[in-house]
Amino acid sequence: MPTSVQILKTKMVTHNVRHYRVEKPKNFRFGPGQATEVSLDKDGWRDEKRPFTFTSLPDEPTLEFTIKSYRDHPGMTNALWGCEAGDHLLLRDAWGTIQYKGVGTFIAGGAGVTPFIAILRQLNAHGGLRGNRLIVSNQTEADIILCDEFEAMDGLETLWTVTNDPKSKLLQQRIDIDFLKAHIADFNQHFYLCGPDAMVKDLRDALQQLGADVSSVTWEK
């Protein structure tokens, strides 16, 4: 049964990404990296469900989502962009298989970084980031989500690459098998993947070819 919660605050993150701070239902539980199916509590939208990851920490008194809106597509994320404090969302139970299993490399494509936000924030809060690495690909530098926050995390190594921003001084490479060979020295570690389905599949195959143990690769199944 979905629970209606009020949006308490919205905050811009990038030109098309916002934080949504919402009420936390009593006794609601989730783990870092997990998600829930969300609907708008408005006529015509209550049966439209989309999965969004919690980017708040489990012990915080409210919930946060960090959501990219596709403004050129007449779907839920576009409608969500028009929501403000006082509007309501419908939440369901938490689910998801992306959980922290140990020191490793997190690889994301675009908004696929969102399941990693709460995981890395929790590790940062407890001084457990040392040795972890975050690699993210975006189309442009302006699309990077929480760049400053990630770079300020003590112990986290970050690597940004863009695929459609020739003016950027960042790496201009797709994350593929050649990228992995060039930028990862040790494949005997944990890997965490999130992004478009095709990207995740290609990276899983590439990591196996490069010697990574399939059991050490975590993605949303």
TrEMBL record:
Span of domain FAD-binding FR-type: 1-101
Molecular function per GO: oxidoreductase activity
InterPro entries for the chain: Cbr1-like_FAD-bd_dom, FAD-bd_FR_type, FNR_nucleotide-bd, MRET, OxRdtase_FAD/NAD-bd, Riboflavin_synthase-like_b-brl
Pfam families associated with the record: FAD_binding_6 (PF00970), NAD_binding_1 (PF00175)
PANTHER family xref list: NADH OXIDOREDUCTASE HCR, PROTEIN RFBI
Protein name, entry field: Flavodoxin reductase
Organism of provenance: Devosia epidermidihirudinis
